[in-house]
Structure formats: C-alpha cells, structure tokens
Amino acid sequence: MSGEATPAHHSRWRRGRRIAAITVLVVLVGIVIAIGWVSRPARLSGLILDRVGSSLGLQITAAGPSEYRLRGVPMLTVRGLTVIQPGASTPLLVADRVYLALPWATLWAGGDDLSIRRIELDGPRLNLQALQTWLATRPEGGPTRIPTLTDGARIVRGQLDAGDWSIDRINLSTDRLHAEKPLAARLSGRLLSGTTAAPFDLQIALTRPAVDAGVGIVGIATVRNGQSRVPLALRLSGVLRDGDGGAGLDAARVGATVRSFNDPSNTEPQLDLAAGLAGRVRYGENGLLIAPLGVALRGRDGMPKTIDASGSLALDDALSLNLQGDIGDWPSDWPALPTPLADSHSPFPFVLEYAGAPDFSGETHLQLRRDETRFDGYFRMPELSAWLDQLTSGTPLPPLRGTLETPRIEMAGTTFSGVRLELDDDDPPVAEAPQTSENAD
Questions:
Q1: Which residue, 294, 234, 290, is CA-closest to 258?
Q2: What is the pLDDT of residues 291-345, one digit of tens each?
C-alpha cells in the first residue's frame, strides 16, 4: 500500500485543521473581548446591570466610573447608580456608590447559591412609593430567599423618602447575614415629619432574618420640635409578621423613659415619666395601625403616678388615637381639687379621642370622671402643655372647653348641689343655677 494519504484522509485533515483554527480564533477573540471588558469596566458593569434590570423589570444604569476585579474574589463597584421602573418619573433607588464582592462559586451557581462576600452602599436614596409601585407588578412567588453575607454589609448617608415623612442620615452596619443564624446590626438616622425631627441610634437583634423571628431593639432617640426636645431611651421586642394586613409585629412591647425640655436653657425637665406600650403592630397600604394597644405611664413630679389604658392608634396622613383607661391619682403640683373630689381616693376613668395632625395640634376629646363627678370636653395638647409649664405662676384654670357636672361641690366655704359648669378656655366658667346651696360647716 502506498504511504500517501488518501483524498478522504486529506479532506478530513483539512476540515479538522479548519475547525481547530476557527476554535482557536474564537477563543482568541473571546479573550480579546474579555480583556477589553476588563480594561473598560463600564462596559462590563453596564452589561451586568442591564441583565439584572431586565430580569427584575427595571432600568438600571450607572453614570459614574466603574471598577471590576476578577482576581481573588470577584468585585464590582458602580457609581452614580439609578434604578427606575420603565415609564416611571421617579427612580426607586439612586446611590453614589455600590460595592459588591462575591465568590466564584456564586457566579458559577447560576442563582442557586446566594453567598456574597460583602455589600456596601454610599449615599443610597430609596423612594418608598416607587418601590411599592414596582413590588405590586412582581409575580407572586415562594418564600423570599435571604442571601448570605459572610463579611456583612454597610450603608452610609442613606435616605428613605415616604411622602409626608422621611428618614435621612441613615447608617447601617452588620458583620454578617445568614438566613438561619442570629443577626445583629446597628442603625442610626433621623426621622423627619413636618416640623418634627427625631435623630436615633439603635442596636437591633433578630433570632434570624425571617418572618416569625423574634426581634429586639434598644437605643436612644430625641424628638425635636421648635425649642422643645424630648430625649427617649427605648426598648422594643416582638415577633415579626408579614401578611394581608402588612408587615409588623405581634406581641410587641415598647418601653421608654421620656423627659421633656421646652426651652434649651432648661436643665430640669418639664416632663419625666416611664412609658410602656404593648399590642399588635402593622404597616401597610393604609399606614401604621396598632390595635389592640395597651398603654402604661408612670409619672414623676408634675404627672400622675399611674395612667393605664387600652385602645388603638392609626397613623397615615393623619393620626387617630382612641384610649379608655384610668388615671390613678391627681398630682400634688396641680391645682387642688375642691371637696369632695379632694377627699376621694378613687381613680379617674377616662376616654380620650383624637383625630388630626400627627403633632397633636388638633382638638382632643376627653371624658373624665371621679365617682359621680363628670367632665366632657375638648383641649389642644400644645395649649395644655404650656399651661402645665406655668402652673406655679399662671392661671389655675386649664385651657379646656366643655361641661363639668357634679352632685355636690364645696367652694369658698359654700356647698353647692346639682352643679353644672360650662367651661370655655377663652372665658371664665359659667355655672348654671344650682338646685340647692348651703353654708359648709
């Protein structure tokens, strides 16, 4: 047989050589493209953001310079991030900088593994209404998958916009995040609502980052409005819930020590008390709802020693508060009660109803009684607070409007029976003619 190759053999060899050449060329082109992407990270980050955005029904862009690293742990940094729902006028998220580091194993897993080394956000601004609008378009799915952050996360200079209220100066940090392990985080920021500002600094702990987990929060806050400030020391616990009524807490318990200073120069508080709240908390489309709500107040100088009540609280564009309970005593610093009210040791059952601006500047309805004496009327919280501040030097008559009825009262050495007083905060009280009167012994 001849040692020369047959035509068929030459044909197969030529085809194989062409295939090999094409394969090598494709690999070389791929390498060149990869080098080009790595040398121009904006292109690669743009591709990644475009694919992520398409999968979420969002348009995600980065206006600033980007960085991408493949060696070691892959890392992506984008600047000038904007996340917006197509057709919307307001982005749901913008950020000065986003940093993401994740292992190769996560990249190769194709979404099955959500392990991430670390996430950082600088200057993120989240629009709550835009976020809720986008979430309403997402398909219903199974349980939310919680990523694992082996080196934790950090947010600095964040902001949450929610229409009538917002939170700015947000700083959040945690050392790690795992779906089945306890979570500890630190959160600080400033809540803004109208003319009220409330900076806060909190430590947060979860038995695990999931619904039905236990949560505990401790920290401090200061509510500021004009010249007044109210420092708070807070403690909160409960069980996380998420359902048709919104997200919130079951078995929520809040404890706080409250001090009020109405003038920056004051060193002694005008109000000093311990407060406890308990109930079921939900936040959803209709705002915040706490129902049922239990309230316990323990006051010091200038305040009743005990106030216990139950009811409900709703907060959206306006505040609605309904409470029924007992005031245990009449503070000695308040104007003295006439006899026989002063001689009684009975509590003061009350009903309080408020519907108006969240700062309590509107009118509050109050029903108050002790034994057979009853008051039914209205007051405004700012005016009542101002009256309490000047008790020692101002008028002993509180700024109330309403009706006081009592079967018997002693005033200026005279006993009046069947008394009905019409009170107006602009005029002196007017008494209807009593049924009987006699000199007191």
A1: 234
A2: 999 999 998 877 889 999 999 999 988 999 999 999 999 888 777 888 888 889 9
pLDDT digits (tens, 9 = 90+) for 218-239: 999 999 988 888 899 999 999 9
Contact residues for 416 (Cβ-Cβ < 8 A; gap 6+): 408, 409, 410, 431, 434, 436, 437
Q: How far is CA 436 from CA 29, 91, 193, 374, in A?
A: 109, 73, 53, 19
Give the β-pairing of 125-127 and 153-162. parallel
Question: What number of other Cβ atoms are within 10 A of residue 209's Cβ?
Answer: 20
The β-bridge partners of 185 are 174, 204
* Pick from 35, 40, 133, 33: nearest CA to 83: 133
Q: How far apart are CA 298 and CA 283, in angstroms?
A: 28
Q: How far is CA 351 from CA 5, 32, 208, 222, 298, in A?
A: 107, 77, 40, 29, 18
Q: Any residues with CB less than 8 A from the CB of 174 and at least 6 apart, and which?
A: 149, 152, 153, 183, 184, 185, 186
Question: Rounded distance, CA 94 to CA 162, Å?
Answer: 15
Each residue of 225-252: b (16+ CB within 10 Å) or e? beebbbebebebbbebbeeeebebbeeb
Q: Are 373 and 406 in contact (CB under 8 A)?
A: yes
**CA 408 – CA 359 distance, rounded (Å):** 38
Decide if 65 contacts 42 (C-beta within 8 A).
yes
Q: Report the alpha-carbon distance of residue 168 to residue 164 in Å, rounded.
A: 13
The two three-digit tokens of residue 52, written as one number: 């992520």
Residues 70, 45: contact at Cβ < 8 Å? no
Q: What is the mean pLDDT of the segment spanning 56-83?
A: 82
pTM for the model stands at 0.75
